[in-house]
Amino acid sequence: MSLSRAYKESFQDILIKKLKSSLSNNNADQQDLLPICPRCESDKPEIVSFSPVKGAWIIYNCPVCIYSWRSAEPDYATKPDRYNPAFKIKMENISTFAEVPVIPALRLADRD
Fold first, then answer.
1. For 79, which of 51, 54, 75, 90 could close a Cys bridge (C-beta 3.0–4.6 Å)?
2. pTM over 0.70
């Protein structure tokens, strides 16, 4: 049985609201749950997935610059102040970037 997209999006919205609520209550242990994007410093990360092993890692995606990272990565890939400045993206420049191309469908070899 698979869950509908609407159900998944609803669940994600509820989860993010709960996480943000816990952050707003100054819960220091939760500070890493919704980090800002290391590359563009947007405050809009999305949770993509959780580790099958509870608490091992969380995968985040930034919808602004399309950077994805796992919470268990080293600081140089997860913390804005440690992220390599050569790879940073300035928010004001994003609108000038070319559109991200769509990945074409997989072509299967013809079988006789």
1. 75
2. no
